[in-house]
């Protein structure tokens, strides 16, 4: 037991802050790479194996199970391939970090290239960062709106 509990608490808080700041930095790098369409950087940011969760939606070509860093990184390129880039919008309402976990909430919208139909809705993204790489990517979004936009 530490002779100075305040020092131990301060050291613990410093370690927690360092972990949270490292998580925040990786997530900010992820957002920048995602916005730039930098698949190579996304591959570097994702761990070799990723706990990927996105509600399965068989009518949406870019939504499918993924588990490797390369598969996860490819999702951004697949989304860009199937949507109209100039119509794609994303806004961020909140960016919360607690240790190795980050939660982002916001709003997305876009147009599906094949149908010309639009989709929109809120999203929440939970990411976990371990050893500088993203090990969890759980996305919750308006899958009904996206499915309807993909259906001719």
What does this structure look like?
It is a single chain. Strand 3 (101-111) and strand 4 form a beta hairpin. The protein has four helices and five strands, in the order H-H-E-H-E-E-E-E-H. The chain has a five-stranded mixed sheet with strand order 1-5-4-3-2. It has 152 residues and is α+β, with helices and mostly antiparallel strands. The protein is 40% helix and 34% strand. The protein is elongated. The model has no long low-confidence stretch (mean pLDDT 92).
Key structural traits:
152 residues; 5 strands
List the helices and strands and how they pair.
Layout: H1 5-36, H2 39-45, E1 46-54, H3 69-82, E2 89-98, E3 101-111, E4 118-130, E5 133-141, H4 143-150
Parallel strand pairs: 1-5
Antiparallel strand pairs: 2-3, 3-4, 4-5
Gist of the model:
With 152 residues, the protein is α+β, with helices and mostly antiparallel strands.
């Amino acid at each position: 037991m530490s002779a100075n509990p305040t020092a131990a608490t301060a050291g613990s808080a410093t370690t927690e802050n360092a972990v949270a700041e490292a998580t925040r930095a990786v997530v900010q790098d992820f957002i920048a790479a995602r916005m730039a369409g930098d698949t190579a950087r996304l591959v570097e940011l994702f761990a070799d194996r990723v706990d990927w969760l996105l509600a399965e939606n068989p009518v949406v070509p870019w939504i499918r199970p993924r588990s490797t860093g390369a598969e996860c990184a490819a999702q951004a390129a697949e989304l860009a391939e199937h949507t109209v880039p100039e119509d794609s919008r994303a806004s961020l309402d909140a960016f919360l970090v607690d240790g190795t976990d980050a939660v982002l909430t916001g709003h997305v919208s876009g147009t599906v290239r094949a149908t010309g139909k639009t989709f929109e809705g809120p999203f929440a993204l939970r990411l976990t960062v371990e050893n500088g790489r993203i090990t969890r990517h759980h996305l919750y979004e308006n899958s009904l709106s996206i499915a309807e936009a993909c259906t001719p």
